[in-house]
Amino acid sequence: MTPALSARVGELVDLGWSLKSQTETTAGLETRKPINWWLFALLLILFLGFGAVLYLVFWLITSRATVFLTVKDGQIVASGDTWLIEEQERERDTMIARAREIKQKGFWRVMWPSVVAIILFVAIWFVLIWILSSHLD
After folding, report:
1. Number of other residues whose CB lies within 10 A of the CB of residue 45
2. Distance CA 40, CA 55 (A)
3. Which tens digit of pLDDT belongs to each residue from 91-111?
4. CB of 103 within 8 A of CB of 31?
């Protein structure tokens, strides 16, 4: 594998991609697409878990993302699900900044809004289940 292609494959492996095939000038990588958490939560609430289970099964079956890298005229050319690579590279800078901020300020100072949002979401979910189960009796 050429040094430039090897370096790019290394970057993608660090982002969570796995190498499936390679030649001297090509490489095929694969990963899973991110789960749609809002849809999962909506199906969990609306269909009391059954819809969420169906969505998870659907996601497991259809969530493969594939990227093919080739060397053309000394340049690395990507084809396939390149939108996912672009999204991961944009998020990488944000995640590095967040990790640096957590290291400087501490976990609770940085992450308390996210923790509060999760607790509120779970509490609302339990209240909705309690209300629905009391009306079914």
Report:
1. 17
2. 7
3. 888 888 888 999 999 999 988
4. no
